[in-house]
Amino acid sequence: MTDIDNRSIGVLDSGLGGLTAVRELMQLLPNENIIYFGDTGRVPYGSRSKDTILSYTRQDIRFLRSFDIKAIVVACGTISTVALDLLSGEYDIPIIGVLRASAYRAAKLTENGRVGLIGTQATVASGEYERMITEINPDAVVFSAACPLFVPMVENGRTSRGDIVIETVAAEYLAPLKSAGVDTLILGCTHYPLLSDVISAYMGGGVRLINSGAEAASYAASVLTMTEKLSSADGTGSAQYFVSDSVTGFTELASRYLSRDVEGAVTFVEIETF
Ligand code: DGL
Questions:
Q1: Which of 16, 76, 98, 195 is catalytic?
Q2: pLDDT the model gives residue 191
Q3: Residue among 76, 150, 159, 245 whose CB has most ligand 1 atoms within 8 A, to mutate
Q4: Candidates 42, 98, 151: which one to mutate for ligand 1, based on the most atoms within 8 Å of Cβ?
């Protein structure tokens, strides 16, 4: 007989980006209950110091652990590359980030060995993706670019093709990677998959985009399956969302991105008190 574990899965990001993991988790594991925290009051994390990222993340995890949770998906590239190694030893439940799964996917998928990475300043400066990709595929060469303006644009809903502002910013950031001839591009910040249409249109259909939030979710699904920690409910998993800034703005953007109405499921939390 297989074990079951009906506790919730915690998902964490500095803002909306972690919804890329939530969307995938809902598809892969529809029985699971999800508790999401988006630190919308303190986003972005990607331009902050390591100490600040660590202290914010510890608070975020303390908040998530005020619920009965069995694992945390750190659906944030910045935390995953800057702080996760240090943090994961501090907790007695699995803490799953985006780095390993996305690096592995890129290293295996690339055909010409030229891999692009876009992320926050902190993620690019960490060098963690280069390190991990070349460990898996020593022939791979990684070309990276920080795209700091993408996060505020996503948080403000500027994600559609035809929006001249986002298209101009995207062209500016992505031009060097396009010239480098990458055939695989890691969207190493979980906000960026919300810009997939814009990024893909600029890079061209031949470039494979790796959605780091979805990769983390799929890795988390494997971990929970292998460790027999799946929930027993039958397709009736629920999701609750907590944010540290406007509930209205998050509700609107999350409903659009998840293609489901999250009205009434989003609550403000005073994160500094945790
Ligand atoms: N989603 C976060 C990440 O993946 C957003 C970045 C930020 O807060 O700067 O890095």
A1: 76
A2: 93
A3: 76
A4: 151
User: Does ligand 1 come within 6 angstroms of the Cβ of 46?
Assistant: yes
pLDDT for the residue numbered 2: 67
From the alpha carbon of 98, which atom of ligand 1 is closest?
4
pLDDT, tens digit, 9 for 90 and up, residues 231-259: 987 768 999 999 999 999 999 999 988 99
Taking the complete model, does pTM exceed 0.85, yes or no? yes
More confident residue, 205 or 266: 266
Provide CB contacts within 8 A for 45, sequence distance 6+: 14, 39, 52, 53, 56, 76, 78, 79, 120, 122
Distance 232 CA to ligand 1 centre (A): 32
Specify the ligand 1 atom closest to the Cα of 77.
4
Model confidence at 32: pLDDT above 80: yes
DSSP string spanning the chain? Answer: ------PEEEEEESSSTTHHHHHHHHHH-TT--EEEEE-TTT---TTS-HHHHHHHHHHHHHHHTTS-EEEEEE--HHHHHHTHHHHHTT-SS-EE-SHHHHHHHHHHH-SSSEEEEEE-HHHHHH-HHHHHHHHH-TT-EEEEEE-TTHHHHHHTT--STT-HHHHHHHHHHHHHHHHTT-SEEEE-STTGGGGHHHHHHHH-TTSEEEEHHHHHHHHHHHHHHHTT-----SS---EEEEESS-HHHHHHHHHHHHTS--TTSEEE--GGG-
The verdict on whether 147 is a catalytic residue reads no
